[in-house]
Amino acid sequence: MSTKSLSARKNDLSIPQKQLEYLNDGLFAEGELPTFKHKLEQENSFPLQPKPLEILQINLGYMCNQVCSHCHVDAGPDRKEIMTVETMQHCLQAIKTTGAHTLDLTGGAPEMNPNFRWFVEEASKAGIKDFIVRSNLTIIVANKKYYDLPEFFKKHNVHVVSSLPFYKREKTDKQRGKGVFDKSIQALQMLNAVGYGKEGSGLKLDLVYNPSGAFLPKDQTAMESDFKTALKEDFDIEFNSLFAITNLPISRFLEYLIASDNYEDYMYELVNAYNPTAVQNVMCRNTLSVSWDGWLYDCDFNQMLELKVNSKVKHISNYNEEAVQNRNIIVSQHCYGCTAGAGSSCQGTVA
Amino acid sequence: MAKNYYDPSDLRKFGEITEWSEELGEKFFDYYGSVFKEGALSAREKSLIALAVAHVVKCPYCIDAYTKDGLERGITKEEMMEAVHAGAAIESGATLVHGVQMMNKYKKLSM
């Protein structure tokens, strides 16, 4: 497993255009598989348009203390893109006018942004009631300045959504790096200790499972039950729900698929598992993604592919929800990842 | 036509058998789908049985399919290998139990 981002390795796949070429060529250009657009057209679902906005997902930066092999952000310690206070202030202005009820903070490790806590506090004052922080867990034990994060989350009733690819050490460490499993367990115990994931506490702790390889998640409910039993028995850890998320064929996961000669089979798998019901609830229809530098995207994946919203308003500094909502969502072949099987979103399955 | 008997990408075309016999093909796939649903046995348990049988009948397509199915269900590699051994034990047992027939015949023919 590489300890550097694609970007630091100057890998071709760090260039969004190269990824898009890969996704548009080959199987799809030759007509062996239908493009996502064609699939939507067949079902009269094209163009895909937003439903009322519910979630504003803000990416606070690509810096992370981990270099996970499947990361669609290509995040890592070598990524220096971090949201500035000025952009945060633009976000706060937008938060005051938005119809969205949830603020979803992601990264990288969002907690590594030096103004993370200030931003949560200000957004709280601006009226946000429902906060999600996507935490990689290990950040909580990475440095003593982060040790009190569980208390901080509790104070603002932040809904913590944490990645834990599997309830066993081997698979987790293979995907996320050596030692990540033990640190994650320690962080989960710290979150449990302040009440997170405990019945009746009102403090929500959800886990994210994503497959550690070229296969799809199958049964979210069965997997949740396996996770709950194993984590309780082995470590006395409790959590609320498990979200099963499909790995999308972009960035580092795309690199893995190509290098392991799994790309073609994986794309077949995604296309064959296409579920029209999932299309109705894909997250790009109720979520808007804001990048570290303030650009607006249909989702975090389109952000990484630098596919800015198809709207007159493209930046948070001149945010206008009406204008942004009146747009067509940009799709490409990676979108099959969100419509396969029971569907996939940042909140797990959708169908 | 490929010069080798097995091609991994043929597994994707499995559904095409219905094109040459629609009624039987559909009946088979309906039946197959029902068999692997949750029932008195869980889908997870059935996946492990399928993996063991796949090895016993030595079907490379089935081995690929049920290794992936196991991964998708979060079945561990230790569980998968034990299932393969269960299949192998029955298969070798099936050979060895014929040793009794050999012994019987030997005894019958011997003075």
TrEMBL record, chain A:
Keywords: Iron, Iron-sulfur, Metal-binding, S-adenosyl-L-methionine. GO terms for molecular function: catalytic activity; iron-sulfur cluster binding; metal ion binding. Pfam families: DUF3641 (PF12345), Radical_SAM (PF04055). It comes from Mesonia phycicola. The keyword Iron-sulfur applies. The keyword Iron-sulfur applies. PANTHER family: FE-S OXIDOREDUCTASE, SLR0304 PROTEIN. Its cofactor is [4Fe-4S] cluster. This is Radical SAM/Cys-rich domain-containing protein. It comes from the Bacteria. Residues 216-349 form the Arsenosugar biosynthesis radical SAM protein ArsS-like C-terminal domain. InterPro entries: Aldolase_TIM (IPR013785), ArsS-like_C (IPR024521), rSAM (IPR007197), rSAM_ArsS-like (IPR026351), rSAM_sf (IPR058240). Residues 58-196 form the Radical SAM core domain.
From TrEMBL, chain B:
NCBIfam families: ahpD_dom (TIGR00778), perox_w_seleSAM (TIGR04169). Residues 23-101 form the Carboxymuconolactone decarboxylase-like domain. GO terms for molecular function: peroxiredoxin activity. InterPro entries: AhpD-like, AhpD_core, AlkhydPrxdase/COmuclacdeCOase, CMD-like. The keyword Oxidoreductase applies. Keywords: Oxidoreductase, Peroxidase. This is Alkylhydroperoxidase/carboxymuconolactone decarboxylase family protein. Pfam families: CMD (PF02627). Gene3D superfamilies: AhpD-like.
